[in-house]
Amino acid sequence: MKVKMLSRNPDNYVRETKLDLQRVPRNYDPTLHPFEVPREYVRALNATKLERVFAKPFLASLDGHRDGVNCLAKHPKSLATVLSGACDGEVRIWNLTKRKCIRTIQAHEGFVRGICTRFCGTSFFTVGDDKTVKQWKMDGPGCGEVEEPLHTILGKTVYTGIDHHWKEAVFATCGQQVDIWDEQRTSPVCSMTWGFDSISSVKFNPIETFLLGSCASDRNIVLYDMRQATPLKKVILDMRTNTICWNPMEAFIFTAANEDYNLYTFDMRALDTPVMVHMDHVSAVLDVDYSPTGKEFVSASFDKSVRIFPVDKSRSREVYHTKRMQHVICVKWTSDSKYIMCGSDEMNIRLWKANASEKLGVLTSREKAAKDYNQKLKEKFQHHPHIKRIARHRHLPKSIYSQIQEQRIMKEARRRKEVNRLKHSKPGSVSVVSEKKKHIVAVVK
Amino acid sequence: METAPKPGRDVPPKKNRLQAKKKKPRRYWEEETTLTAAGASPGPPGNKKRNREPRPQRPKNANIAKKSRVSRKRQLPKKPRERRNLEPQRSVSGAQDPFPGPAPVPVEVARKFRRIDKSEKLPHSKSKTRSRLEVAEAEEEEISTKAARSELLLAEEPGFLEGEDGEDTAKIRQADIVEAVDIASAAKHFDLNLRQFGPYRLNYSPTGRHLAFGGRRGHVATLDWVTKRLMCEINVMEAVRDIRFLHSEALLAVAQNRWLHIYDNQGIELHCIRRCDRVTRLEFLPFHFLLATASETGFLTYLDVSVGKIVAALNARAGRLDVMTKNPYNAVIHLGHSNGTVSLWSPAMKEPLAKILCHRGGVRAVAVDSTGTYMATSGLDHQLKIFDLRGTFQPLCARTLPQGAGHLAFSQRGLLAAGMGDVVNIWAGQGKASPPSLEQPYLTHRLSGHVHGLHFCPFEDVLGVGHNGGVTSMLVPGAAEPNFDGLESNPYRSQKQRQEWEVKALLEKVPAELICLDPRALAEVDVISLEQEKKERVERLGYDPEAKAPFQPKPKQKGRSSTASLVKRKRKVMDEQHRDKVRQSLEQQPQKQEKAKPLRARPSALDRFVR
C-alpha cells in the first residue's frame, strides 16, 4: 500500500512574526474562482458607480479679467503658464500651479482678437481690433522699465486671428485675407484670399507645418499651402464655421466648430464627406481644441457648456457646466493632456480635469493597479444596459436639457417626414442622404 | 594595408572569400569566428600576424559553427524553429542555455484556463468588431498560457492511495491508513461518540477549518476540528434538521423543528427567521449571500443573509422537499422529488429551469461536483446514476447498489461518496474533470451507526460523516484540492484577513437575478436581442442603413456612357455575382458527397440485399 495524505506545513502559510507581510498563496484554477463573469460584472458596476461619485472635474477659476475672455494660448515649454486675452484689450499671463495672474498687459485698444506663443516660448503675439500685430516678451519688464511690445506692426485692416508656425519664424494672421509674415519684416510675405469675406480663424498644421487652414464667414473652410501663392481647396458647409483645429497626431485630420451646433471632423484628402459629425451641443460651437494624444477634443459652445468628444464618436463623452459659467468663447486642452481650460463671457478662466473622476497627485502602485483594473472592467462591460445607463448619465442645466428635448422632437419630425416622402414616392426618385453628407454644400479645388 | 589573407595558405580560399565579402558585424563573445573576421577586415599589421598564426590550430567546431551559420542563413526564412534546436542561444558568458525558448505548456493545462470558444463566430459582425475580437482572443490565449505556466509554482501535490499490485484499495481499512501516514494526518481521523443525541448532520466551513454538527435531539456544536478546539456547544431543545455555516465560520444557520435560526460562533442566537418554517434542508450560496431553504411545505425559499430579506419563495409543487443540493458552478439549486425527477431552480424564475427524470422511484440523494459537470443521484430503485449537466442531461453511467445510497457527496477533486446504511463507499475517477467510475470503489468504511450526513472537507483529505452514533472524520487520500487560493478561502487566514475578505466579498455580492444555467452568458454577445434591435431599427428608419447598395455603374467620359453600355456593365456585374454564388454552392456540394462516400468505400456483393 502506498499512501500520501495532503499535509501542509503551517509555517509555509503563516507569517513568522507580526512584522512580516501575510502570506497569500495563489492558485488561478478556474474551479476555485467560480462565477468569474458575474463577479467581474458586479465589480464593473461598482467601479462605474464610483466613477460617477468621484466625478468632480472643476478645479479652479482664474478671475481677474475685467471683460469677457476672448482668446487663450498655451505656453509651449511651461505647463503652468497660460496666456489669455480679453475683450477690453488686456492680456494676462497666469500661473496655473499658484492659480494666480503673474502679469497684466494692456495690449490693445478694443478686443484682443487673437493670441499665440512662439514655438520657443520666449515671446508671444497678439492681434487686436486696433489693426495692430504686437510681439511681446514672455518675461516681464525689469525694474524701472516700461511694458512695451518688442515689435508692433500696423496693418490696414482689422486682424481677427493669429497663429504661429510650429518650427520657423513665420506667423499667419487673418482678417480680410490670410497673411503670412516673416517675423523680421513689417509687411506680409504673402497674402492669400478666396472670396471676399472676413476670415475668422487661421491655424497651422502641427505636423505638416507648411499647411494652413482657415474658416471664413461665407461658410467655407479653406486650406492653404504656405509654399504656394494660392489656396489649395475649400469646402462649403451649410453654416459658418467658427474655428478649426488640426489633429496633432494625424496630419490630415482637422475638426471644424460650426454654427449649426455640430462639429465636423474632416480628412483633408476627401473633403466631400466628413469623417464624423459630432452633435451634442444645443447652440453654436465657438471653439475647439485637440488633446495632445489626438484621440479626443474639447469644444466650447454658446450654450454655456464645454463638451469632450472622442474623435471617432459622434456623441460627447463628457459635458462640463457650472451655474455661473456663461457663453464659453475659448477653450484649450493643456499639453500634459490632463486639464482643460475655458474662458467665458463672465470674465473667468476655468480649469477642469480632462478626466472627471481622475485622482490627482501621485498614485501608489496599488492604487494604480486598482485603477487600471477598474478601467479594464468598465471597458469590458460598458455595453451592459445597467452600466451604460450609469456611465452615460450627466446632470444638465434646465436650459440645455429642455433644448435637447426640443431639438430631438424637431429632428424626429424631420426624419419622419423624410421617411414618409421615401415611402410615398416612386422608388428611386427620392434618395436617402446620410447625416454626414447633408451639411456639405460643395468642395472647390 | 592588407585586407584579406592570401588564398592557399592555411584555409580553403573559398570560405575566406566568402567571409571577406560578407563582413558581418561581430560581437566580442563570438570567440572563434571573430578571429576570421578580424583577419578579413582591415586592422593593424601586428594584429594581423597574430591572427594568422593560430589559424591552423583552430578547433574543428569553429568550422562547424561557421557552416551552421551559413546554413542557418539559408534556412532562416523557412524553418526558424529548427534553427533554435540546432544551435542554442549563447549568453554573454558563453554558457549555453540547456532549455532554450519559452517554457513548454501542457495542452490540457492551458485548456483548463481557456475562456473563449474560438469556434463560435458572431453573425453579421463588422470588420472592426471582428478585428477587436481577434485582439481579445489573442490576449486571452496569451493569458491562459501564462496562467498554465504559473501552475509550476503551486506548492502542494495531491494525496493518493495505491494498492500494491493486485491489492484492492477498497479493502484498506482506515486503521491501516492512519498507521501509514504521518502524525499530523493521522490526527485528522477521529470519532466523536455521541450516541445520546444521534443522528447527526454536519457541515464544514468554506475554508475547511471549522466543523459544525447538529443532532436530531437538539445538540449543536462547532469546533475548530484541526486543533480540536470547541467553539460552542448548545442544546437547542428542538429537533435539528440541518445545519450550515454561512459565508464565514462566525455565523451558523440551523434548521430546527419549527423555524430557521441563526447562531454566532459562541452559540448566541442572532435571528429566528419565521418566514422559513419547517425547513428540512439548507444550502448556502456564498457568492450571492443566499441561504436556500427547502421546507416540508414544499417551498424553496431564498434568504439574502447580507440584508436579511427573502429574495424569492418558490413553490416547487411537488410535496415535501427533503433532497436538495447546490451546483457550485452556477448556483442553481437541485431538488429531488418523490416522483423520480430532479428539478433545477434559480431565484429569478418561478418555474424550474429544467426537470430531469432520473429514477423510477423517488430520489433519495443528489450531489453535484465542483466543476458543475456531473450530477450524481440515487433513488428508491437502488440505482446510483451520474448525469452530464452540460446541455443534454443524459445519464453517463448507472449502477445498482444493494441498499441504495441515502446520502451523496462530491469532493473537490471529483471523488463521490455514498452513504448506504452504515457503510460509506467512495468512488474515484481518472482525474479532476472526469466522472467517477462506479465499477470499483476506491474506499469503503463501516460506521457504528446509520449514515445521516456526508460532507467532504474543503482543502483537506477528509470526509466528515454524521451518523447515529456521532460524527466520524474519515481519511480519504486525494479527495481535496491541494493548493488553495489565499484571496478566496484561506484556511490559515487571520482574523484581520477574514474581516478584509468579508468586506470585499460583500462588495462584490452577485445579484440573485444573475443565477442561470450558464454563468458565463453575461460575457457573451446577446445575438437574439441584437438581431431584434436591428430589425426594429430597419422598421423605424424605413430602410436598412447597413444594406449594401446595388451596383450603380459610374458614368464615363467621351461618349462611352450610353444607356446601352451602362446596362451592359450592370448586367456584367450581376452575372459575376451570380456566378460567384453558383461556384460557392458547387464547392459545398462535393464536400457533402465526399462525406457520404467513405461509408461504402468498396461495393460489396451483399449490397444488393440491403434495402
Automatic annotation (TrEMBL), chain A:
Leader sequence segment: none
Pathway(s) per entry: Protein modification; protein ubiquitination
Family annotation (CDD domains): WD40
Record carries keyword Repeat: yes
GO cellular component, one term: Cul4-RING E3 ubiquitin ligase complex
Gene Ontology MF, one: ubiquitin-like ligase-substrate adaptor activity
Transmembrane segments: none
Any Pfam family the entry gives: Sof1
WD repeat residue numbers: 62-104, 278-319, 321-362
Subcellular location: Nucleus, Nucleolus
Record keywords: Nucleus, Repeat, Ribonucleoprotein, Ribosome biogenesis, rRNA processing, Ubl conjugation pathway, WD repeat
Domain Sof1-like protein, residue spans: 354-440
GO terms of biological process kind: decidualization; female gamete generation; maturation of SSU-rRNA from tricistronic rRNA transcript (SSU-rRNA, 5.8S rRNA, LSU-rRNA); protein ubiquitination
The keyword Zinc-finger belongs to this UniProt entry's keyword annotation: no
Family, as annotated: Belongs to the WD repeat DCAF13/WDSOF1 family.
Described function: Part of the small subunit (SSU) processome, first precursor of the small eukaryotic ribosomal subunit. During the assembly of the SSU processome in the nucleolus, many ribosome biogenesis factors, an RNA chaperone and ribosomal proteins associate with the nascent pre-rRNA and work in concert to generate RNA folding, modifications, rearrangements and cleavage as well as targeted degradation of pre-ribosomal RNA by the RNA exosome. Participates in the 18S rRNA processing in growing oocytes, being essential for oocyte nonsurrounded nucleolus (NSN) to surrounded nucleolus (SN) transition.
PANTHER family from the UniProt entry: DDB1- AND CUL4-ASSOCIATED FACTOR 13, U3 SMALL NUCLEOLAR RNA U3 SNORNA ASSOCIATED PROTEIN
Name the UniProt record assigns to this protein: DDB1- and CUL4-associated factor 13
Organism encoding this protein: Callorhinus ursinus (Northern fur seal)
UniProtKB/TrEMBL annotation, chain B:
Keyword Cell wall biogenesis/degradation belongs to the record: no
Localization annotation: Nucleus, Nucleolus
Gene Ontology biological-process annotations: maturation of SSU-rRNA from tricistronic rRNA transcript (SSU-rRNA, 5.8S rRNA, LSU-rRNA)
Basic and acidic residues bias spans: 573-584
Compositional bias (Basic residues): 14-26, 66-82
GO cellular component, one term: 90S preribosome
Record region (Disordered): 1-139, 539-611
WD repeat start and end residues: 356-390
UniProt keyword list: Nucleus, Phosphoprotein, Repeat, WD repeat
Residue ranges annotated for the BING4 C-terminal domain, each copy included: 441-519
Pfam families according to UniProt: BING4CT (PF08149), WD40 (PF00400)
Superkingdom, taxonomy of origin: Eukaryota
Primary role: Scaffold component of the nucleolar structure. Required for localization of DDX21 and NCL to the granular compartment of the nucleolus. Part of the small subunit (SSU) processome, first precursor of the small eukaryotic ribosomal subunit. During the assembly of the SSU processome in the nucleolus, many ribosome biogenesis factors, an RNA chaperone and ribosomal proteins associate with the nascent pre-rRNA and work in concert to generate RNA folding, modifications, rearrangements and cleavage as well as targeted degradation of pre-ribosomal RNA by the RNA exosome.
Record note on quaternary structure: Part of the small subunit (SSU) processome, composed of more than 70 proteins and the RNA chaperone small nucleolar RNA (snoRNA) U3. Interacts with DDX21, NCL, NOP2 and EBNA1BP2.
Name under which the protein is recorded: WD repeat-containing protein 46
UniProt source species: Zalophus californianus
Source organism phylogeny: Eukaryota, Metazoa, Chordata, Craniata, Vertebrata
